[in-house]
Amino acid sequence: MHTNHNSRWAPPHLRHYPLSSCIFSDILSPLVSFFNIKRPESDKYRRKKEWVTAALKGCLKLLIPKELPTPHSRSKHPHLRRIFRRVSVSRGNGSSSSALKLVNAENFAGIALLTLIRADMQQFKDKWIACVSFGEQTFRTHISDQTDNPVWNSEKKLLLEKNGPRLARISVIETNRISKNNIVGYCEIDLLELLTQDSDSDFEVFELVDPLATGKVVGKISLSCSVEDPIETEKNFARRILSIVDYNEDGKLSFSEFSDLIKAFGNQVADNKKEELFKAADKNGDDAVSMDELAELLAIQQENEPLINCCPVCGEILEVSEKLNTLVHLSLCFDEGTGNQVMTGGFLTDKQASYGWVFKLSEWAHFSSYDVGLNSGSSASHILVFDRKTKRLVEEVIDKKIVLSMRAIYQSKIGLRLMDQGAKEILLSISQKQGREMSTTESARDIPKFVEFFKDQINMAEVKHPLEHFKTFNEFFIRELKPGARPIASMERDDVATCAADCRLMAFKSVEDSQRFWIKGRKFSVQGLLGTYSSAFADGTLVIFRLAPQDYHRFHSPVSGTIEKFVEIPGCLYTVNPIAVNSKYCNVFTENKREVSIISTAHFGKVAFVAIGATMVGSITFSKKAGDHVKKGDELGYFSFGGSTVICVFEKDAIEIDEDLLANSARSLETLVTVGMKLGAATKKQDKNFGKCSLGILADAIET
């Protein structure tokens, strides 16, 4: 799903939603607020009411199916009822209440109500906010009073669904600084596990861990989480719809009001049957449709043949599913569109939510922006990636001075001229010198500072040897991991490909897609990347694995097969940071130093594996040799100090890349993955007589 570029004109709480058209954000928010305020029945009011109804009709006219089924008895969601349990919880004052929990979380889809109650901060008194990061959204509470025991009682409805995010990160932030607030502590909670566990309390307490000190507890946070009854979800949505045309605000729809609602749906078939629908909805025969009756009518249509096929707020196509009634989605979107919930939304990460007003002013002054997408121009100040494991957006750690330097060099014509005037040679010389320095014993003293800077991204528990084992910085940089630290997906199946590195991944069905969504160098091509042998990979699938300095820097085979001859291609050492890759002024992948090999496989045909050096990379070292047979997940080699990239090119239609990776890449959003995660599956049958290829002509082609 693509984010609409016009969404920047939407209200802040809608700005990061994938709006199908900015008209939804421009109309729906004032729509509901307009009818929620009591006004005298004047000519001006009536004209505005007619305009609003017409506007809603325009929004929804293309969203409704042509045929409308006859209503019949309601199912009451038996598939949902079987997995719920009502529990009694005791409160501190002796009273009790009930909450809806899950009997079984398997395949559950619905709304979870998360409430951040209070925190106990052990360090000091301050003004505090709490943030909830879930999926691609982050929400924050109001600012508390000056205290060491902040109280928020802020709630947020979150959508839980199969294969969707389930891990919520909760951060507590002190706000005493103007320019940048501090994240003091955080915890991560699996919401489905929380919803299924037995408890006799109405809240749970979790320890907050210092993000800068492993295992250090800095406080506790109290929260509650329960499941919203699906019947209540339907009623809430019906209440919103009803309020749009309930002109006299009596909580019911007369026939004329009901007719206006049907007309607003824009369904001609339904309009012709409005009398029949009104009678079917009016269960008690009082010549009016109540909220409950409207909820029942809407539920019947959604469960059988949907009355509304596309969400009017976010534009997402609503599919029929017995696991998740589409009214859940609609209810959540209406909550966002009307500002009905307590927590403030519109943030992408907890880091963004913690920024103060001076930072926001500097964002404007430096023409930078905070959003998902290409890292060029104003978007180049912040690099956001999607963590595949936690299903959450995270911001990549990078020094601001380095960002400004890269923008100056790689995204301007002046920088391009500097490259032509000898800057390429300077980068190469600096990288070679830095590589030599990182192999000296003196460089080992930088290891603790490096680990401290990337503390939340380097897990020393996975590393094979302790820090004192490494005698040089490069030894640490090419560190090995403990056996089993990177499990390989579907190890028994050679028709499943896996990720080649701990990295930020981009995957495209074709080179044309990669140039449209990511690689903006004007001269990029498969021929430029691979040379004469590129004809075998025409229109092939391209996967880019970008390694950052903090990553595990050994790369592994994504497939099982036989390695052919290696060909080293000399070149420059540009950075492989997205700021350079997204620039039209340089051609990182086809001009950088790289080493190409071909892996012949039974399921994928030929796979080109390209290891590309980058600024500060001392060398590319392969641990395998030509003719070796490798299993997927086997180590192929490593990069010495610096950032670097691996590119795999598959033959056309040889692999079906996992949908989530393609979807993120189509949004120009990198996906954070680790070695062994599933990449995709072969589309071809096994070739038992697959042949070998020679790259002898490749080196000659590159030289000429």
Automatic annotation (TrEMBL):
Post-translational modification: Is synthesized initially as an inactive proenzyme. Formation of the active enzyme involves a self-maturation process in which the active site pyruvoyl group is generated from an internal serine residue via an autocatalytic post-translational modification. Two non-identical subunits are generated from the proenzyme in this reaction, and the pyruvate is formed at the N-terminus of the alpha chain, which is derived from the carboxyl end of the proenzyme.
Top EC class for this record: lyase
Active site (record annotation): 502, 556, 644
InterPro entries assigned: C2_dom, C2_domain_sf, EF-hand-dom_pair, EF_Hand_1_Ca_BS, EF_hand_dom, PS_Dcarbxylase, PSD-B, PSD_type2_pro
Domain EF-hand, chain residue ranges per copy: 233-268, 269-304
BP terms from Gene Ontology: phosphatidylethanolamine biosynthetic process; protein autoprocessing
C2 domain: residues covered: 79-205
Any one Pfam family match given in the protein's UniProt record, by short name: EF-hand_7
Free-text comment on the cofactor: Binds 1 pyruvoyl group covalently per subunit.
A single GO molecular function term of this UniProt record: phosphatidylserine decarboxylase activity
One Gene Ontology CC term in the entry: endomembrane system
Keyword line: Calcium, Decarboxylase, Lipid biosynthesis, Lipid metabolism, Lyase, Membrane, Metal-binding, Phospholipid biosynthesis, Phospholipid metabolism, Pyruvate, Repeat, Zymogen
UniProt-annotated location(s): Endomembrane system
Residues modified to Pyruvic acid (Ser): 644
SMART domains, per the entry: EFh (SM00054)
CDD domains reported for this sequence: C2, EFh
Cofactor: pyruvate
Pathway the protein contributes to: Lipid metabolism; Phospholipid metabolism; phosphatidylethanolamine biosynthesis; phosphatidylethanolamine from CDP-diacylglycerol: step 2/2
Reaction(s) catalysed (UniProt annotation): a 1,2-diacyl-sn-glycero-3-phospho-L-serine + H(+) = a 1,2-diacyl-sn-glycero-3-phosphoethanolamine + CO2
Domain notes: The C2 domains have an essential, but non-catalytic function. They may facilitate interactions with other proteins and are required for lipid transport function.
Subunit structure: Heterodimer of a large membrane-associated beta subunit and a small pyruvoyl-containing alpha subunit.
Protein family: Belongs to the phosphatidylserine decarboxylase family. PSD-B subfamily. Eukaryotic type II sub-subfamily.
Function: Catalyzes the formation of phosphatidylethanolamine (PtdEtn) from phosphatidylserine (PtdSer). Plays a central role in phospholipid metabolism and in the interorganelle trafficking of phosphatidylserine.
Full protein name: Phosphatidylserine decarboxylase proenzyme 2
